[in-house]
Amino acid sequence: MIEQTRRTLQDLKCSGMLKSLDIRLSEATSNGWGHIEFLSSLIQDEKMQRETNKIKRRLKAAKFRVDACIEKIDTTAKRNITKTQVQTLAQLQFIKQSKNVMLFGPTGVGKTYLASALGNHACRNGYSCIFIGMNMLIDRLAMSRTDGSYLRFRDKLITTDLLILDDLGIKPLPPQAIHDFYDLLEERYQSKATIITSQLPFANWKEVIEDAVSLEAILDRLMHGSLIIDLKGESYRKIRCKNEA
Which domains does the chain show, CATH number per domain? Predict the structure, then answer.
């Protein structure tokens, strides 16, 4: 009977129940559980396993470059971000309220890590996320136009709960990329949350977005109502090199 039950659970893809069946049978015998208690514990195991699988799928789909977590964010004064700010961000109200988060600061101060940690935290709390560097985004959009996947890729970027665009400003955006960037922001405006990291403050975006009309429209959607954090301090990479020397 037990082997038949295992096969049935396997056929039904109830991996949580299947993994815990022997443990729950032993506990039921030891503790004198009734049928309801035994069944309830198995159902809870299945629920937890399915939620774990969903989290794994969301994390895989996000394609984070670094394994970052909220607990490891540097909130010392020299970084210009407080523990209270991180705790507030970790509540994910900016996603629920469809607000944007702008992370500014020089290279190596932890912008990408903070953005990734928030994205990771969002995935673990039921939200979908896509992490992509701006240069990669430009290339992917251009490629998708040639292979016929543009609309599908664009739809993913528009509909994900949290879109993280990393390192805007490494190089000037081509004209088509500027229009694509604007379209993404326009489609997501007040309906989805976006995190953007950049070494350049808003005042310097004209260096990489040369179309003045598009720049004004982009800034209009980002400057008003966005949460802005200006990270400071010495580059973590420089500190690491000093310690290794």
Answer: 2-59 (no CATH), 63-244 (3.40.50.300)
Sort 193 into a burial class: Cβ within 10 Å, 0-12 / 13-18 / 19+. buried
Burial class (CB in 10 A: 0-12, 13-18, 19+), 111: buried
Instruction: Please give the model's pTM, rounded to 2 decimal places.
Output: 0.88
Residue 164 · residue 137 · CB < 8 Å: no
d(CA 192, CA 85): 21
Number of residues that this document lists for the chain: 245
175: buried, middle or exposed (CB in 10 Å: 19+, 13-18, 0-12)? exposed
- Which pLDDT tens digit goes with each residue over 58-71? 999 999 999 999 99
Say how far apart CA 104 and CA 30 lie, in whole Å.
58
